[in-house]
Amino acid sequence: MAEDTPEVNPMADMRHARETVSTFQKHIERLEVDETRPRSPVLLEPWESKIKRHRSNNSDGSSSRRGISLSSTRWNKSVGKEWAESRSGALWHEISNALEDVAKQFKGVDSTALKEFVSTRQILELGTEFVRIYRCGSKALAAVEKPPYAAGALFWSLQGVKQGDTRASQWTRASAERQKEWDLSGHLARFVLLADGYRRQADREDWDTWNTDFATNTSLYLCILRCFLIRDKKQRELAQERELGLTQQPQETQDRDSVPRKRSSRSSSSRFSRSSRGTSN
């Protein structure tokens, strides 16, 4: 999918276009892991603030070969914490299982290598960016562009880049204002192109084995996006549980505090009654 990737048979993908688009459609339909969409990006702010702090600490924004090759090792050490953000670790366990399921679907994809790939800062940023737009963007992307149309548009966009008819920078270097005009397929193309470009530059043998055919490569990245959306769903569920716990706690405290006051009131009433009898005598 990179611009400089040689194509032995340019017509190979075209012969299977209908089948490939159908496959993309199925993966895009599976991106909607639930029907709940938050009205604001508040739940994403804690993670996005981490990304901003990381960027400020690395202001040069360099994506040199050396930096890319080291990042997966550096960030994989904290992958559970970065993905889970929960004391129990249950969220990371579920996401880990989802990634293992993805690895089983694709020949040559090792689950450990896939987890290391997803846990790199570059891919985490790309995934978080997509989730923010998909869930909380100004457009309801899934409603504006239905899966069949998104799948077809994604196919032709990526094929344009692969055949050299379109420059990848149209998506990879698009401004934020330009991205606001995109439908779902545009954001999918951006993730696929940037993720695949990062994988190639990393020059890791266990990631190079993923470079098979066009349909399989793209499907792998769509499956990775689904893992990010599963993570987002679970984060929102945990946030709702915490919010519910905080709203119940004050009431429980109030109920406990009311018991001593009632006892004190009865005790005071009893003392007053005895005092009254003594006075009357």
Would you give an account of this structure?
With 281 residues, this protein is mainly α. It has one domain (12-243). The protein has 15 helices and no strands. It has helices at residues 12-15, 17-29, 45-57, 65-76, 79-84, 90-105, 111-118, 121-136, 141-144, 147-162, 169-172, 176-179, 184-202, 205-208, 214-280. α2 packs across α10 (147-162) and α2 (17-29) runs parallel beside α15 (214-280). The chain starts with 11 loop residues before the first helix and ends with a helix.
Q: Which structural class is indicated by helix and strand composition?
A: mainly alpha
Spell the H/E element sequence: HHHHHHHHHHHHHHH
Tell me the β content.
under 5%
* Number of continuous helical runs: 15
pLDDT averaged residue by residue: 75
What's the gyration radius in Å? 27 Å
Q: What is the first-to-last residue Cα distance?
A: 103 Å
How many E strands? 0
Helix content: over 70%
Ranges where pLDDT stays below 50 over 5 or more residues in a row are: 3-8, 36-77
Number of domains: 1
Shape: globular
Biggest sheet record: none
Question: What descriptive keywords fit this protein?
Answer:
mainly alpha; 73% helix; 15 helices; 281 residues; globular
